[in-house]
């Protein structure tokens, strides 16, 4: 084909003109942090338009814009900035450390901390990554003001107790609502073991981008009837525009108990119990005959056996973590894939967790206005469990055994003739396996109707399935049927369909408006089955079909529904006057037909004073904001049928029948919590930031089973909304940038919280008293209620108690008595801390990073309900703590331990003798890492390699005499310890590799 020269020259000229024109319309640049490290995935928007892009893996970007136009750059945990466009831009972002420009995730949207009028605590991935704990909640301890996080005990499957701003209920649920990528998670405990499991053990920390805790009613009210205990919003990682990245993390750790108690050895045991036998029965014969039995043919007189049962119950734990992630994307499609494996051998014998998780987050921009995506995750956790703390076959109850007893016989089998059932018989001849499977998924779509208005539609699903298999062989303790197998299966599932509109616009450059309005439908179902079989031919058969007789079984199904409408308005004038209002209306099938719907409003306002002309250019006071909020939220955690009149099957003589089992209440509704919050935030020199808040939270309409007239027949109680509690306190958060230069960066975060939780109203004003606690108007929730121990009579060694009877003038009689029945119970302590604090320091020096967190709690007490067995100077043959050697022996002895009297009940009554303060300060975690220089890796195709060592619960400073100030009984009770395992002290080494 012939081309004329002049036509070709014209074509070349036009092409160059187009290229030049095109280049004139585009601006390019690079985004880095203060160290010059590229930041991928930075959002870059041409201000006032919908034109946007993101920086690639190397921090480079290109956007259609003219010189001088304003570009807005934003990225998670970095300050949002506006810059004028120019050629070959070099833009540096400043990390905010979760401060003013940090983007907070709130219900159905986001908001910067600068403009937030709510009280929201936040941590990001870097705050929780590489902390060697098996569950996400444990990684948050000490990092969130106003949030108390306690693992029940040191078992790998131990339940978690999280309280946001104190207790908001007495009889309904007290745990926060967890929302994962917009999905309200199922958090019901389905354990039939007697001890709770943690449903969130199914989550892996490596997939989490951030966790935002909505603490006040203004932030939580958008979740209405489920927000009274706070809301924990978990956001998983997403892909970012740019070159694909691959990250691999591997770590291996070892664990031990944070503390062990001191128990009597054989010499001490024989000495103390011989003396106790003489004092209690008149001679040593009772003790010696028992020694003969316990020794089982060994020579106890020559101390042939000296078994350390505590040492057998504890073991060296191991923690293995491997996780990877792949992420990336372009202008249209973004992806994030991750997988993780965790294998944790607990510090308690026969206790282990193995978990695998996988996640896939994908979004695709179908057109300029339409985006769709899907989040999908899977988790499978297998737990080898031990019995609850109140079982003789749980390992730590082995400390009650005598050191004279051999743990095993000469043939290696467990000794069956010990004081109590030998837990080794259970370890050798039984197992309890729990398997938890979780699938969460969400399909979402977003359509931009006009630049300022979009609509979102999300369909989400959460399935938590759990199976439990409990097998006992013919030689297991208490076995009378040649073996038994017990199996359960439960499926909890919920699906949520959410549709909402978001309007976001700025008028006249001063009026900023964000409005969200939508509806949500939530359906929850549960199906449970269990079966038991007995009489097995051999221990090789360990499933239900191996038994000769199926002797028990049950099954049930249940469901509940929520229907909700919600709306929220955020308004800002001139970026300094802030206002927010929200409302949610919830309807639930759980409540009475007359009170099925509830409305939950909230309001908040703020004033950024530092934006006023008289402070705007102040170099000292860099930020100042006042804020306040008020709102109502609810607590719907009462079960599905509390309002219904129920009849149950009642078979008799192989004939079916019905019985009246629960009285109905058509007016039963949710507990309602009204909260007020006022606060101030200020910054100094752009280096120090302070936040102080005062909160007041009152919950009324508490749910109680109230006695009904016996003349009505049937059940003797009916569930009603009666009662009121109140929590109040201060929260202080201080963040400082101590040093910031090219080689050294040192930041500190400190938080401290006070809490005072009181009972304000009870049914008919009556006290509700349990074995150790009381709920009484004007006192702390679940206060300890005990006889007061007065020490020892130095003349005769009797245990003494204060009478605390009321004198005629209304005062208390503080005289003492050795007759336990003469003493009256008093309020003696608080099971919840009144002061909590956390201190985190992060130091980066060149390629070395170092961080540590201290946690502290003050004002709480623990009641050791096992004390009357293990610390009573040989009242029975349970092994004793060594402090009992300090017993009274001669007239004039001054001691707090009564005379040792076998069977004498000298000081064994439930009393403050076994109540102890739990004040402590703990080095919660410490991490040191080293990142290889980039020059070392440039030819290997690796972007970074970091080696690190990390530890959890390394040091604890406390005067508490028990196992650990955070260990709690796992089968029942509040603020109790009962052979409860302490948490693990873990040290791990790891490596993180990024490609």
TrEMBL record:
PANTHER family to which the protein is assigned, alphabetical: HEMOGLOBIN AND HEMOGLOBIN-HAPTOGLOBIN-BINDING PROTEIN 1-RELATED, TONB-DEPENDENT OUTER MEMBRANE RECEPTOR
Residues annotated as domain TonB-dependent receptor plug: 113-231
Domain TonB-dependent receptor-like beta-barrel: residue ranges: 415-765
Name the UniProt record assigns to this protein: TonB-linked outer membrane protein, SusC/RagA family
Lineage: Bacteria, Pseudomonadati, Bacteroidota, Flavobacteriia, Flavobacteriales
SUPFAM superfamilies named among the record's database cross-references: Carboxypeptidase regulatory domain-like, Porins
Swiss-Prot/TrEMBL keywords: Cell outer membrane, Membrane, Receptor, Signal, TonB box, Transmembrane, Transmembrane beta strand, Transport
GO BP term, pick one: siderophore transmembrane transport
């Amino acid at each position: 084909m012939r081309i004329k020269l002049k036509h070709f020259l014209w074509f070349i000229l036009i092409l160059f003109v187009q290229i030049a024109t095109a280049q004139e319309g585009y601006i390019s640049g690079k985004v880095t942090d203060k160290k010059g490290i590229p930041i991928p995935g930075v959002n870059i928007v041409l201000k006032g338009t919908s034109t946007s892009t993101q920086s690639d893996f190397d921090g480079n970007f290109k956007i259609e814009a003219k010189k001088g136009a304003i570009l807005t750059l934003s990225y998670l945990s970095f300050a949002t900035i506006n810059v004028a466009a120019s050629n070959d831009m070099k833009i540096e972002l400043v990390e905010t450390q979760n401060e003013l420009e940090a983007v907070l995730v709130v219900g159905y949207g986001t908001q910067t901390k600068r403009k937030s009028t709510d009280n929201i605590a936040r941590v990001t991935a870097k705050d929780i990554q590489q902390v060697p704990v098996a569950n996400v909640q444990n990684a948050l301890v000490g990092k969130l003001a106003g949030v108390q996080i306690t693992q029940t005990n040191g078992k790998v499957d131990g339940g978690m107790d999280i309280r946001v701003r104190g207790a908001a209920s007495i009889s309904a649920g007290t745990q926060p609502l967890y929302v994962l990528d917009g999905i309200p998670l199922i958090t019901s405990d389905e354990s039939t073991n007697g001890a709770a499991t943690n449903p969130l053990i199914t989550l892996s920390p490596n997939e989490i981008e951030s966790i935002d805790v909505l603490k006040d009613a203004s932030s939580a009210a958008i979740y209405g009837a489920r927000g009274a205990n706070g809301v924990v919003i978990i956001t998983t990682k997403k892909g970012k525009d740019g070159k694909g990245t691959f990250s691999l993390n591997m770590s291996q750790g070892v664990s031990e108990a944070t503390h062990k108690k001191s128990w009597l050895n054989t010499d001490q045991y024989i000495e103390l119990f011989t003396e106790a036998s003489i004092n209690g029965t008149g001679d040593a014969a009772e003790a010696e005959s028992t020694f003969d039995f316990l020794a089982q043919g060994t020579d106890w007189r020559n101390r042939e056996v000296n078994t350390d049962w505590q040492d057998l119950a504890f073991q060296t734990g191991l923690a293995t973590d491997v996780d990877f992630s792949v992420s990336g994307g372009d202008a249209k499609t973004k992806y994030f894939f991750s997988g993780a494996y965790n294998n944790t051998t607990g510090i308690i014998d026969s206790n282990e967790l193995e978990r695998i998780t996988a996640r896939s987050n994908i979004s695709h921009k179908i057109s300029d206005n339409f985006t769709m995506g899907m989040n999908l995750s899977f988790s499978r956790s297998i737990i080898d469990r031990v019995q609850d703390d109140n079982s003789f076959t749980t390992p730590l109850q082995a400390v009650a055994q005598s050191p004279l007893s051999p743990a095993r016989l000469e043939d290696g089998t467990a000794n069956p003739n010990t004081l109590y059932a030998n837990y080794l018989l259970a370890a050798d001849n039984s197992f309890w396996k729990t398997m938890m499977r979780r699938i969460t998924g969400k399909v979402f779509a977003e359509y931009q109707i006009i630049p300022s208005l979009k609509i979102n539609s999300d369909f989400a699903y959460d399935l938590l399935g759990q199976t439990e298999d409990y097998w006992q062989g013919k030689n297991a303790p208490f076995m009378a049927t040649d073996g038994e197998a017990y199996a359960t299966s439960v499926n909890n599932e919920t699906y949520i369909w959410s549709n909402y509109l978001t309007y976001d616009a700025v008028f006249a450059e001063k009026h900023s408006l964000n409005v969200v309005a939508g509806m949500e439908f939530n359906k929850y179902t549960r199906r449970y089955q269990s079966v038991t079989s007995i009489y097995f031919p051999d221990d090789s058969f360990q499933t239900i079909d191996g038994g000769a007789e199926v002797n028990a079984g049950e099954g049930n199904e249940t469901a509940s529904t929520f229907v909700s409408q919600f709306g929220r308005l955020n308004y800002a004038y001139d970026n300094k006057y802030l206002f927010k209002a929200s409302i949610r209306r919830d309807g639930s099938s759980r409540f009475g037909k007359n009170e099925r719907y509830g409305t939950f409003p909230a309001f908040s306002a703020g004033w950024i004073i530092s934006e006023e002309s008289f402070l705007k250019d102040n170099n000292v006071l860099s930020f100042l904001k006042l804020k306040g909020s008020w709102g109502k939220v609810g607590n719907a955690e009462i079960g599905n049928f509390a309002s219904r009149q129920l009849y149950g099957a009642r078979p008799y003589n192989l004939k079916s029948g019905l019985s009246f089992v629960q009285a109905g209440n058509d007016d039963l509704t949710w507990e309602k919590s009204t909260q007020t919050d006022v606060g101030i935030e200020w910054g100094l020199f752009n280096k120090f930031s302070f936040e102080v808040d005062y909160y007041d939270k009152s919950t009324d309409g508490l749910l109680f089973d109230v006695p009904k007239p016996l003349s009505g027949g049937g059940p003797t109680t009916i569930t009603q909304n009666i009662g009121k509690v109140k929590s109040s306190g201060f929260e202080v958060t201080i963040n400082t940038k101590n040093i910031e230069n090219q080689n050294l960066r040192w930041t500190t975060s400190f938080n401290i919280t006070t809490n005072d939780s009181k009972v304000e109203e009870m049914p008919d004003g009556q006290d509700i008293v349990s074995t150790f606690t009381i709920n009484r108007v004007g006192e702390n929730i679940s206060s300890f209620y005990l006889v007061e121990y007065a020490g020892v009579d130095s003349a005769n060694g009797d245990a003494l108690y204060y009478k605390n009877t009321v004198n005629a003038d209304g005062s208390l009689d503080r005289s003492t008595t050795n007759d336990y029945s003469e003493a009256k119970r008093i309020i003696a302590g608080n099971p919840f801390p009144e002061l909590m604090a956390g201190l985190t320091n992060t130091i980066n020096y060149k390629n070395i990073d170092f961080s540590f967190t201290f946690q502290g709690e003050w004002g709480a007490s623990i009641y050791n309900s096992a004390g009357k067995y293990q610390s009573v100077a040989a009242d029975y043959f349970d092994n004793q703590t060594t402090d009992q050697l300090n017993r009274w022996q001669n007239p004039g002895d001054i001691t707090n331990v009564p005379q040792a009297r076998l069977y004498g009940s000298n000081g064994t009554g439930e009393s403050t003798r076994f109540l102890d303060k739990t004040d402590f300060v703990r080095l919660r975690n410490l991490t040191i890492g080293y990142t290889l220089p980039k020059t070392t890796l440039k030819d290997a195709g690796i972007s970074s390699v970091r080696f690190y060592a990390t530890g959890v619960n390394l040091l604890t400073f406390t005067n508490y005499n028990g196992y650990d100030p955070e260990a709690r009984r796992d089968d029942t009770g509040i603020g109790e310890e009962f052979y409860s395992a302490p948490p693990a002290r873990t040290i791990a080494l790891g490596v993180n590799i990024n490609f």
